[in-house]
């Protein structure tokens, strides 16, 4: 097993995934539970959904399967499901059971201690905390039977989240609406503090990551410039991923049309020379430098002070260009160089050119992408890349699946962290 893998596994193990069994009973509010599932998955929980028969009249198991990434449990005595994870096993698996919506019927059955379907059986068999989000018509909620059941359930140690006051699907107004998914997710996080994003592992806490992103603009005169089609999306996604990993992030961005992630230190620039100056201004505090910018290789030798006018009879024009500084190579040559990662956008023999650039620019890692494809890379939302680095003289490669730039950025940052930690430990 490589050292990189060991580090990644250690980080994973320190963050125990919270396992939530999400019960859905029959009620119109069941459609809101789809959003709750998404929020819980996003906060890092492993979510398994159990639906009552009534729930399936409102929303399909397929919806929850797609959102939770796990198959949905619907029957108590289904031999196939029992062979996979039996009901007792499922009850033991859960760290927490949440029932949303909790109908008057399921509250009554739970209060009576019944076990006549999968969800009630699981609640009886579990030792995990059970949270209920009641949702029903206001008259049903006010009925003494429901009120008695609610008290009984609280006595058993179940916790009720809501219900809320307001307009109901049937047109009535009163107490009985299910709390909104965002409010429920917050209350669930309070009950399970290890779920909150702040409790997620922060492998880059106390570290500074500096990222260049977007194109540069090289002035020809006050109204014209040379530039390229870089959108900045990949660099901005990396900035977001580094931020989520706990880093302080300097984002040195050329002119782009997208908003910077909240919380980064944005250093907006125009030209390659400005980008280099901004990079050098933070290099001493930088632990990891990622050059995702599409820097113009050349700039006009002398940008005109005034707008250049065409002359009568002029059929052609020659622009004298000079080479721009290579920002990432300059950073990588610095005396106290940070861990340095570059990009290689190529149209052919992508990995061969990238491997050459890795050595030539003295980089620690390089992210290679094929810009000849129009469905990925420049300006698109998805990308497919190969991450290359040297390990004990051998070229190593990591090739994640083509994915949205945000998802890819998280994967790349994880691998960059692993290699950064590995070199630090040496
Ligand atoms: O040499 P090439 O432009 O293909 O190298 C690409 C990598 O070098 C990218 O990481 C890019 O951000 C960086 N670069 C730079 N300064 C330049 C040219 C490229 O930092 N002038």
Low-pLDDT stretches: 1-15
* Total strands: 21
Number of domains: 2
CATH fold naming of the largest domain: Rossmann fold
Text of the CATH class of the largest domain: Alpha Beta
The CATH homology group name of the largest domain: CoaB-like
Hetero groups: cytidine-5'-monophosphate
Helix content: 25-40%
Structural class: alpha/beta
Strand content: 15-25%
Radius of gyration: 28 Å
Quickly list its features:
binds cytidine-5'-monophosphate, 21 strands, Rossmann fold, elongated, eight-stranded mixed sheet, 426 residues, 15 helices
Question: Can you tell me about this structure?
Answer:
- By secondary structure, this protein is α/β, with parallel strands linked by helices.
- The protein has two domains: 3-198, Flavin prenyltransferase-like (Rossmann fold), CATH 3.40.50.1950; 201-301 and 315-425, CoaB-like (Rossmann fold).
- Helix content is 36%, strand content 23%.
- It has helices spanning 3-14, 30-42, 61-68, 79-84, 87-93, 104-111, 118-125, 138-142, 144-156, 181-191, 233-244, 272-282, 327-333, 350-360, 405-425, and strands at residues 19-24, 46-51, 96-102, 129-134, 159-160, 164-167, 173-177, 208-213, 218-221, 224-226, 248-253, 265-268, 288-291, 298-300, 321-323, 339-346, 365-370, 382-383, 385-391, 394-398, 403-404.
- The strands form six sheets. The chain has an eight-stranded mixed β-sheet with strand order 12-11-8-13-16-17-19-20, with helices on both faces. Strands 2-1-3-4-5 form a five-stranded parallel β-sheet, with helices on both faces.
- Helix 1 (3-14) packs across helix 15, helix 2 crosses helix 10 (181-191) and helix 11 packs across helix 15.
- The longest helix has 21 residues, at 405-425.
- The radius of gyration is 28 Å and the shape is elongated.
- The two termini are 17 Å apart.
- Mean pLDDT is 90; it is low at 1-15.
- The structure holds cytidine-5'-monophosphate.
């Amino acid at each position: 097993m490589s050292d990189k893998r060991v580090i990644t596994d250690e980080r994973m193990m320190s963050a125990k995934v919270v396992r939530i069994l999400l019960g859905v009973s029959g009620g119109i509010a069941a459609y809101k539970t789809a959003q709750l599932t998404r929020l819980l998955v996003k906060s890092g929980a492993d979510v398994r959904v159990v639906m009552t028969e009534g729930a399936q009249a409102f929303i399909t198991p397929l919806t929850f399967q797609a959102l939770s990434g796990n198959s949905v449990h619907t029957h108590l005595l289904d031999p196939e499901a029992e062979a996979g994870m039996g009901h007792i096993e499922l009850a033991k698996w859960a760290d927490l059971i949440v029932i949303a919506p909790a109908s008057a019927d399921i509250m009554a059955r739970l209060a009576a201690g019944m076990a006549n379907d999968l969800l009630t059986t699981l609640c009886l068999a579990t030792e995990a905390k059970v949270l209920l989000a009641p949702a029903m018509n206001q008259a049903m909620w006010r009925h003494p039977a429901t009120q008695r059941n609610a008290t009984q359930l609280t006595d058993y140690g179940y916790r009720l989240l809501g219900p809320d006051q307001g307009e109901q699907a049937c047109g009535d107004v009163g107490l009985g609406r299910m709390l909104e998914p965002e409010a429920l997710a917050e209350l669930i996080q309070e009950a399970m503090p290890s779920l909150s994003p702040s409790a997620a592992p922060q492998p880059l806490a106390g570290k500074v990551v500096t990222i260049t992103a977007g194109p540069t603009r090289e002035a020809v005169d006050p109204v014209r410039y040379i530039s390229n089609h870089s959108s900045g999306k990949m660099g901005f996604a990396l900035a977001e991923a580094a931020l989520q990993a706990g880093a302080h992030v300097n984002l040195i961005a050329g002119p782009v049309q997208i908003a910077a992630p909240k919380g980064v230190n944005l250093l907006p620039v125009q030209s390659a020379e400005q980008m280099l100056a901004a990079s050098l201004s933070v290099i001493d505090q930088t632990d990891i430098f990622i050059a995702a910018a599409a820097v113009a290789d050349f700039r006009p030798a002398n940008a005109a002070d005034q707008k250049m006018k065409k002359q009568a009879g002029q059929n052609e024009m020659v622009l004298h260009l000079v080479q721009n500084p290579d920002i990432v190579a300059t950073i990588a040559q610095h005396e106290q160089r940070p861990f340095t990662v570059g990009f290689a956008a190529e149209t052919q023999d992508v990995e061969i050119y990238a491997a050459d650039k890795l050595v030539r620019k003295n980089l620690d890692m390089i992210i290679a992408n094929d810009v000849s494809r129009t469905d990925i890379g420049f300006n698109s939302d998805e990308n497919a890349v190969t991450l290359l680095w040297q390990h004990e003289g051998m070229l190593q490669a990591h090739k994640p699946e083509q994915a949205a730039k945000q998802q890819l950025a998280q994967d790349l940052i994880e691998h960059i962290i692993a290699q950064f930690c590995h070199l630090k430990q040496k």
